[in-house]
Design brief:
23 strands, 498 residues
Length: 498
């Protein structure tokens, strides 16, 4: 692998540390000794025999070259294993020295190396750390990249445990300051990614609460598509006064940023939409900046869900159905994808025929098309191009569905589920422990599973921290570079497996 320095940095502080380790310096000395040794051996031969034959020189030269190449290869392998491409050390970090916000010091609190000391600016509204530390790069890559920041931090506050007042917000800062501080998550300290002038994203990750006065190792990660951008920046962000802290100082050591191409994808899918609650889910997905694939239930579009809509009168259904169809259009307009469930999504009737199942899917597909394009729907490409097996997974129904898949030319996309009866944190822990690249996750509309709203806020950042990119079903198929086989059922789209 070839290292590329993507950013020309200007850091107030120490001279950049050489990336050659002591091991590499030792290998240079070994090479020098080998060269000297060959000369000594040849001189000894000449003294004994009166000559140094060409063959002898060739033998020693061959050994010398082999040794040189071996050492170079070992050295390069060692460098790659330590740094890899696109890695950055403490000296790649830029420091805002305005108003004494940042400086490099030699050692602190038991650590003898270089440390960056960061102080906030108290503005009229908050204690601000924004861009006290930041890192720029000129983008030469494309596609999805995972950007990870690792560092050790120590936080100190002169007001820890004491009643505080602020010249800027005296009425709101009278309680005793806490002795801990949170990193990651809304209103907490952390890192933000900016691309160009129009895209920013806070790094994902589970909030971490640390005690003051102790060195703590932290990891922050964010996956993003950098295609089309020519520059970017990663910067420290957050307003700690929202946690009740004022004027605390942050010390940073062992700072490192890595950028790697992403090869882990997950497709989030949702069953049973539309409902009266789908719009709230769409708002949340927009805030999380992810796109999903919605498998539409035909009965729900007509406000005839056998369970959820059972109390609606005929007049109610006529009044509700237009809003449901407008929700389907918004799903499409927001950049999400659409798939098909059978009309009622539960077909275990032994009398169900292949034609019956196909008609349910065709009716739902036509209803989706009409909701988006109106009466002109036949003049547009079909927007719902995947089908999903019914919830009950009845073997007979599934066998029929496989034949219908081949007749209609629509792949069957299934996926993995989880127990939604437990807490969002437990769901997230279990989800991540079982997660595999190329997984398709099955979730439900909030009407069927209200817990999805709380779960997404915990699950999405955690999965992103694990280096995954959320994609739609068609994006995943495109990235696997292999079409899905009609009639097969896909819960995972790993091209090396299926």
């Amino acid at each position: 692998m070839v290292e590329r320095d993507l950013a020309k940095v200007d850091v107030a502080g120490p001279t950049p540390v050489s990336r050659f380790t002591d091991n590499q310096s030792m290998k240079k000395d070994q090479v020098a000794r080998i060269i000297t040794g060959n000369q000594v051996n040849c001189a000894a031969l000449k003294a004994q025999s009166g000559s140094c034959s060409v063959r002898t020189v060739q033998v020693f030269f061959t050994i010398f070259c082999f040794t040189i190449f071996s050492l170079i290869f070992a050295g390069c392998s060692h460098l790659s294993s330590i740094y890899g491409p696109n890695d950055y050390s403490l000296n790649d970090l830029k420091i805002d020295t305005n108003e004494a916000r940042g400086e490099v010091i030699n050692g602190y609190n038991g650590y003898a190396g270089k440390v960056i000391k960061v102080s906030p600016i108290n503005t009229s509204n908050w204690t601000d750390y924004s861009r006290t530390l930041y890192w720029d790069w000129d983008l030469q890559d494309t596609g999805f990249q995972q950007i990870t920041v690792t560092m050790s931090v120590l936080v100190e506050s002169p007001n820890s445990g004491k009643a505080q007042t602020s010249a800027y917000r005296p009425a709101q800062k009278t309680a005793a300051a806490p002795s801990t501080i949170k990193w990651n998550g809304p209103a907490n300290l952390g890192w933000t990614l900016q691309l160009g002038d129009d895209y920013t994203a806070q790094f994902g990750g589970k909030p971490v609460q640390i005690e003051e006065g102790k060195w703590v190792d932290l990891v922050f990660s964010q996956s993003v598509d950098i295609t089309g951008y020519t520059g970017g920046q990663v910067y420290l962000d957050g307003h700690s006064d929202q946690q009740g802290l004022i004027d605390q100082t942050i010390y940073v050591r062992n700072f490192k940023v890595t950028m790697r191409p992403v090869t882990k994808f997950i497709a989030m899918t949702f069953n049973d939409s539309p409902s009266d609650f789908t719009e709230v889910l769409l708002d949340q997905l927009d805030q999380l900046d992810i796109k999903g694939t919605f498998f539409i239930l035909g009965a729900s579009m007509d406000a005839m869900h056998p369970v959820m809509d059972r109390n609606l009168t005929a007049a109610d259904r006529l009044a509700v159905a237009p809003d449901r169809k407008e929700t389907v259009k918004r799903i499409f307009d927001d950049g999400h994808e659409l798939g098909l469930l059978t009309y009622f999504n539960a077909s275990t009737d032994p009398a169900l025929t292949e034609n019956d199942l196909q008609k349910e899917l065709e009716d739902t597909r036509t209803a989706v098309q009409r909701a988006i394009y109106g009466d002109d729907y036949m003049n547009h490409p079909w927007v719902a191009n995947y089908i999903r097996d019914p919830n009950d997974n009845d073997p007979q129904t599934l066998a029929i569905l496989k034949r219908v898949s081949q007749k209609m030319g629509l792949p069957i996309v299934s996926g993995t589920t989880y127990d939604s009866s437990v807490s969002p944190d437990t769901i997230t822990d279990q989800f991540v422990s079982n997660l595999q690249p190329w997984d398709v996750s099955i979730n439900k509309d909030p009407r069927s599973d209200p817990s999805i709203m709380r779960t997404l806020n915990t699950l999405v950042p955690r999965v992103q921290t694990e280096g995954y990119i959320f994609v739609t079903v068609s994006e995943m198929i495109d990235k696997r570079r292999m079409p899905l086989i009609l009639g097969d059922v896909y819960t995972n789209m790993n091209p090396d497996v299926h």
